[in-house]
C-alpha cells in the first residue's frame, strides 16, 4: 500500500507540562487496573502537532507512517446528538457538548480486499474487492484492528480475552472510533440531520432511496418533500462512491453502518471530553446507516445498536488511529451469557394483514410452543392507506398502543419467539408496548419479521434497545408470507436457534 509519512512527536514532548498530572494519573491507573471495569475520559498528550517553540523540552521525534487514505481530523468541540426539533429523532440522541482530540480516520470504509488480506476471510453478503466488508461482528472488528496493527508492527489497541476487550488508549495501532469521534467526523462542522446540510438524495448516498428523509409523513402527497424518492440499489457500492464530506470522508451516511467502540447507553447531557460511552452494556453502537436503511436512520445523530457478537449485511468497519496519545485503559467485560438455559418457548406476535400470523402458526406446528397474538384495545384501521398513516404517526411519537390481552405467567418461558411485520423500517409500536410490559431480562428473544422488501430495517436495533438485558437469537426475515419455501426456512432457522 502506498504510504505517506507523517512526522509525529512522541509523548515525551509534553513531559515538562504534564509532569504533575502524570503522577496523579499513574496512581489512578494503578487503582483502576484492580477495580475493572472503569472509564476515564479526556486525559491525553498531544503527539501530532509539532510545537513551534519546543526548545526547552526534551523531544523525541518518531517517524509514524500513516496509510495515504487516512486524514487527520483536527479535534474540536461540537454539539453531539440532535436538537429536539429534528424530524425523526429518538430520545436517546440527547444533545450535549463534546470535545474530541485530534485523530486519524480512514476516508473509506474498510474494503473486502483489505479484510481478506489480513484475515484470509470473506464474510460479506455481497462480493467485490472495493465493496465494504460487512457481516462482521464488533468482536470481528476489534480482532481485525489488532491483526492489522501487528502486521504493521504497531502496538495493538486492544487486549482481547474471549469476549472481554480492554482498550489501551496509549497504543498507536488501528482501532475503532469512539461514538463521539464518529459523529464529530461525520458532521464535519455541520449541525443539520445530514452532513450535506440538506436532505440526502440517492445520488448522494447509498441507502433505501425509495424512502428519503421525511417520506413517512409525506407519503401520499410528496410536494413538500425536498428530496424525492430515488434509486434503491439493494447492494453495497465501492467505498469511494459519491462525494466526500468536508473532512474528505466518503460514505459516512449510507453504504454500511460502522461499528464504534462504545457500548450502547444513555450518553447524558453533561459536557464531556473524549467520551468512551456507557461503562458497561450488552450492545455496541454502529453509526451512519447502510444500503438498506431509510434516510431517517442514517442521520448524523442516529444511534443503531446490536450485540457485539452479531454481524449484519448492513454493518462494516471504518478504522482510526491516535494522533494524540491517550492514557489509561478501558475495560469491557463483554456481554455475559444472559440467555435462558431452559427451553420453554412462547411465540408472541403482532400481525395486521395475516402474513406474520401464518408464519407464527407454522412455527407452532413445528414446535408445539405456546402462542400469543398481540391484540390492541384500539386496533389499527383495516384500510391500507389509513394504517400506513397511523403507523408512521405512532412511530414518530414513539406511541405505546394499549394491548388488550395478557400472557399468563411469562416467567415460565425461557425463549420468546417474537413475530411482527416490518413497519416503516422498524417494529410496529405494539411490539414496543409488549416488550416494555413484561419482564424479559435473562430470556432469549428470537425475532422473525415479515416484510415487503426492507427485511429487518432497523427493527433489530429497536428490539435490542428495548430489551438490553435479554439475549437475542438468530433472527429470520421473510418476504410477505414466505411462499412455498417458508416451512423449510422456518425449520432450518429453528434448528439454528436450537429450538428444535
Ligand atoms: C403500516 C405499514 C408499514 C409498512 N412498512 C414497511 C417497510 O418499511 N418495509 C417493508 O419492507 N415493508 C413494509 N410494510 C409491508 C409489511 O411489512 C408486509 O406486508 C408484511 O408482510 C405484513 O405482515 P402482516 O400481514 O402480518 O401485517 C408495511 C406495511 C404496513 C401496513
Any descriptors?
about 500 residues, alpha/beta, Rossmann fold, 2 domains, 6-stranded parallel beta sheet, 4-stranded antiparallel beta sheet, 9 helices, about 20% helix, globular
CATH topology value of the largest domain: paralog of FGE (formylglycine-generating enzyme)
What is the mean pLDDT?
A: 87
CATH architecture of the largest domain: Alpha-Beta Complex
Overall spatial form:
globular
Whole-Å distance between the termini?
49 Å
Structure, described:
This protein has helices spanning 15-34, 112-119, 138-151, 179-187, 355-367, 384-396, 429-437, 459-466, 486-496; strands at 3-9, 44-46, 61-67, 70-73, 76-80, 96-100, 103-106, 158-161, 164-168, 174-175, 257-263, 272-273, 283-287, 303-307, 315-316, 320-322, 324-326, 329-332, 345-349, 370-373, 415-421, 444-451, 471-472, 476-479. It is of the alpha/beta class and 500 residues long. The chain folds into 2 domains: 1-336, paralog of FGE (formylglycine-generating enzyme) (Alpha-Beta Complex), CATH 3.90.1580.10; 345-496, Flavodoxin domain (Rossmann fold, 3-Layer(aba) Sandwich). Strands 19, 20, 21, 22, 23 and 24 form a 6-stranded parallel β-sheet that branches. The model is unreliable at 1-62 (pLDDT under 50). Flavin mononucleotide binds at residues 351-357, 387-388, 391, 421-425, 450-454, 457, 480.
Amino acid at each position: 500500500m502506498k504510504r505517506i509519512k507523517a512526522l509525529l512527536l512522541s509523548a515525551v514532548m509534553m513531559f515538562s507540562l504534564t509532569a504533575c498530572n502524570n503522577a496523579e494519573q499513574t496512581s489512578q491507573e494503578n487503582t483502576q487496573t484492580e477495580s475493572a471495569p472503569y472509564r476515564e475520559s479526556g486525559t491525553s498528550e498531544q503527539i501530532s502537532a509539532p510545537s513551534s517553540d519546543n526548545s526547552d523540552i526534551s523531544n523525541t521525534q518518531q517517524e509514524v507512517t500513516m496509510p495515504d487514505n487516512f486524514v487527520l481530523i483536527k479535534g474540536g468541540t461540537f454539539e453531539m446528538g440532535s436538537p429536539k426539533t429534528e424530524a425523526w429523532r429518538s430520545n436517546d440522541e440527547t444533545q450535549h457538548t463534546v470535545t474530541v482530540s485530534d485523530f486519524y480516520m480512514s476516508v473509506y470504509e474498510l474494503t473486502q480486499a483489505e479484510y481478506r488480506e489480513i484475515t484470509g476471510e470473506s464474510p460479506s453478503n455481497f462480493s467485490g474487492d472495493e465493496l465494504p466488508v460487512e457481516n462482521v461482528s464488533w468482536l470481528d472488528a476489534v480482532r481485525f484492528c489488532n491483526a492489522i496493527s501487528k502486521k504493521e508492527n504497531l502496538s495493538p489497541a486492544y487486549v482481547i480475552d474471549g469476549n472481554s476487550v480492554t482498550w489501551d488508549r496509549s497504543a498507536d495501532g488501528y482501532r475503532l472510533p469512539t461514538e463521539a469521534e464518529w459523529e464529530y467526523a461525520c458532521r464535519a462542522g455541520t449541525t443539520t440531520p445530514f452532513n450535506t446540510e440538506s436532505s440526502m438524495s440517492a445520488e448522494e448516498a447509498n441507502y433505501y432511496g425509495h424512502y428519503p428523509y421525511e417520506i413517512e409523513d409525506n407519503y401520499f402527497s410528496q410536494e413538500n418533500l425536498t428530496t424525492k424518492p430515488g434509486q434503491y440499489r439493494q447492494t453495497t457500492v465501492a467505498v469511494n462512491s459519491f462525494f466526500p464530506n468536508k473532512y474528505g470522508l466518503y460514505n459516512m451516511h449510507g453504504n454500511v453502518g460502522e461499528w464504534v467502540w462504545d457500548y450502547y447507553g444513555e450518553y447524558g447531557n453533561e459536557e464531556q471530553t473524549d467520551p468512551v460511552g456507557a461503562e458497561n452494556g450488552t450492545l455496541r453502537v454502529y453509526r451512519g446507516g447502510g444500503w438498506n436503511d431509510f434516510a431517517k436512520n442514517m442521520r448524523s445523530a442516529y444511534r443503531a445498536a446490536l450485540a457485539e457478537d452479531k454481524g449484519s449485511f448492513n454493518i462494516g468497519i471504518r478504522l482510526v488511529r491516535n494522533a494524540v496519545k491517550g492514557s489509561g485503559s478501558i475495560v469491557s467485560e463483554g456481554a455475559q451469557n444472559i440467555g435462558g438455559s431452559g427451553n420453554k418457548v412462547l411465540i408472541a406476535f403482532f400481525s395486521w394483514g395475516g402474513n406474520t400470523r401464518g408464519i407464527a402458526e407454522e412455527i407452532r406446528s413445528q414446535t408445539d410452543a405456546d402462542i400469543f397474538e398481540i391484540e390492541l384495545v384500539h386496533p389499527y384501521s383495516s384500510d391500507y392507506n389509513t394504517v400506513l398513516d397511523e403507523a408512521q404517526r405512532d412511530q414518530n411519537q414513539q406511541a405505546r398502543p394499549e394491548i388488550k390481552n395478557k400472557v399468563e405467567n411469562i416467567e415460565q418461558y425461557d425463549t420468546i419467539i417474537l413475530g411482527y411485520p416490518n413497519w416503516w423500517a422498524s417494529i410496529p409500536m405494539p411490539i414496543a408496548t409488549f416488550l416494555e410490559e413484561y419482564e424479559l431480562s435473562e430470556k432469549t428473544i428470537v425475532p422473525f419479521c415479515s416484510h415487503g422488501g426492507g427485511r429487518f430495517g432497523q427493527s433489530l436495533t429497536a428490539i435490542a434497545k428495548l430489551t438490553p438485558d435479554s439475549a437475542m437469537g438468530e433472527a429470520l426475515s421473510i418476504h410477505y408470507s414466505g411462499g412455498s419455501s417458508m416451512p423449510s426456512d422456518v425449520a432450518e432457522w429453528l434448528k439454528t436457534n436450537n429450538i428444535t
